[in-house]
Specification:
The chain has helices at about 5-10, 30-35, 40-45, 55-65, 95-115, 130-135, 155-165, 180-190, 195-200, 210-225, 240-255, 270-275, 300-305, 310-325, 345-360, 365-375, 395-405, 410-415, 430-440; strands spanning about 75-80, 85, 120-125, 145-150, 170-175, 200-205, 230-235, 255-265, 280, 325-330, 340-345, 385-390, 425. With about 450 residues, the chain is of the alpha/beta class. The protein has a domain at about 75-95 and about 210-410: Rossmann fold (3-Layer(aba) Sandwich), CATH 3.40.50.1100. The strands form 3 sheets. It has a 6-stranded mixed sheet, sandwiched between helices. A 5-stranded parallel sheet has the order 6-3-4-5-13, with helices on both faces. Helix 7 links the parallel strand 4 (about 145-150) and strand 5. The two termini are about 25 Å apart.
Amino acid sequence: MGFQDAVLTGLAPDGGLLVPETIPDVTAKLTGWEGLSFVALAREIVPLFVEDIALKDLEQLITDAYVNFTHPEIVPLTQVGDVTVMELFHGPTLAFKDVALQLLGQIFAYILGRTNKHMNILAATSGDTGSAAIAGMRGLSQVDIFVMYPRGRVSRLQELQMTTEVDGNVHCLAVEGSFDDCQNLMKTIFGDLAFKEKYSLGAANSVNWARVVAQIVYYSYASLKLGGDQPVSFCVPTGNFGNVFAGFIAKRMGFPIKQLILATNENDILAKFFDSGVYERGEVRYTVTPAMDIQVASNFERFLYYHMNCDPVALSEFMADFALSGRAELAAPLRSEDFLATAVDVDDTLSTIRKVYETSGYVADPHTAVGLAAAERFALDEPLVCLATAHPAKFPEAVNKAVGADVAHHPALDDLCDRESRTTNVPADVEAIKDVIRSLGR
């Protein structure tokens, strides 16, 4: 299908994910791109994956997507000790999800405006996707957005960012369960093709290919800024595998990237896989990094597709085994030149926040601290970039506890505490979610 159809489809009809037929090779273009700003580079990269939106229109959508970012560099680079931190939290909701979802909102509005269609966007969030998706789509007349999140399992400020939105097209659903329950509900509902078609369901999660495309840009940007004569490695706090997968694609495109350090919290299903080749679901552990409290990483099958030499049959068998038993294993030992992986527990997370603050004065949110802790475990010769995925003020309890002082503030978040909050409590039940969509969707 074309790019526009891929955006509207979100999750593929058979429950799988969409990938491009080919990955463009940009090696010959790198020298000419080295001095570009983030937005200018995005205007070069994103069109390589989009064949059915006029270039002039697409370039304007990209430009408009980043006008509400508060830093002129969009994703600034900051030196913290021996590591370069790339701050991805200068968008409207102070999280890395804004980089992709501000663009996805522009693309949805463009497509639906030209076709005069309405969509009901169904999203599952462990915290930041929900508010970022809402920020990208609030007030759009041709979109209603339904955001499921695990009740009591996101930070208070993350919940307020979602539930204090007043636009009538925003519907927040607090699900009695885990994020994995929310994600499974979403995939199950998308699997009901008749319901999906009748209610024009679309996806804002990273199952939507457009989100991955947007995230490729910041890996590309940092690698060109810092690479010089040698490639750059990245350390990525990882829960659902979408963020780090964008880095994997950027490397395959030819950008100077050596390795991707996959940093999980105590929900270490991915770290164990890259150590053993065994993908095995366990009980969700709730930590100070709620966006990573995930056992089933929805984007992981995209990596497996390439790892299995683009064999969809082998991939389908692997995923079917996992769906049936909660465990699947590669037929041959895992060998990946792209990934290193490790898991960081809560104690290491908090001690890293404290140590980084004491040694450099830098305040890291808990998810970023997972990345910084992981970065210390590998001796690499090349420049290392750690992705800062959220502003520390989104997690004040953990940050202030670790630092021993009240340092985690942001005026936009402080302002939320006095606003009225509205959400709908629902059980982790497919029909209950469908009933909400039936009653509130258009």
